[in-house]
Amino acid sequence: MDDNNNVYPSEIVYNHIKEGRKIEAIKILREETGMSLRDAKEFIEKFELRNFSKQSSIEASESVLNHLRKGSKIGAIKKYREETGMGLKDSKEAVEKMIDENPEIKKEMEEINKQQRKKAGIYILLIGLIIITLLYFL
To answer: Is residue 112 in some structural domain?
Structure first.
C-alpha cells in the first residue's frame, strides 16, 4: 500500500500506540489493512510524530527542561520518552531541538559541562600525582 493517507485504523491500534505498545499496533494494523511490515511501521511512526509530539511536548517540556537545566541531556531524553511514548531517536531529536530553541538552557548546559570537565581534569591530575608519588616511594 503506497498511499497511507486514506487508512483509518481501528481504535484498538490507536490505544496500543498511546500505551507504547508499538509492535502490537503494527501487527493489528497489518491484519486490518493488509499493509506490509515496512508500511505499517512507517504509518505508526508518522502517527506518533504527528500526534504525540503535538500533544505531549508542552507537558513534557517543563520536566524535560528541568533535566536540561541540571545538565542531564540523557535524563531529559529518558523523561521525554516516558511522557510521549516516542522512540529513542525521535526523543533525542526533540530534546536537541529544545536545547537549540532555548538559548538560556543551552548556555546553562554549556556552563555545567565546562564545570564538569574542569572537575574531571582536577581528578585526573590528582590521580596522576598519587601514582607518581607511589612510584617514587616504591
So the answer is: no
Q: For residue 26, give its domain range.
A: 4-101
Q: What is the DSSP string of the chain?
A: ---GGG----HHHHHHHHTT-HHHHHHHHHHHH---HHHHHHHHHHHHHHHHHHHHHHHHHHHHHHHHHTT-HHHHHHHHHHHH---HHHHHHHHHHHHHH-HHHHHHHHHHHHHHHHHHHHHHHHHHHHHHHHHHH-
Q: Using one digit for the tens of pLDDT, what is the confidence trace for 58-105? A: 456 788 888 998 889 999 999 888 887 778 888 898 888 888 888 888
Task: Tell me, yes or no, whether 96 lies in a domain.
Answer: yes
* Total-model pTM: 0.50
Does residue 136 form part of some domain? no
Look at the block and give the residue holding cell 503506497: 2
73 within some domain? yes
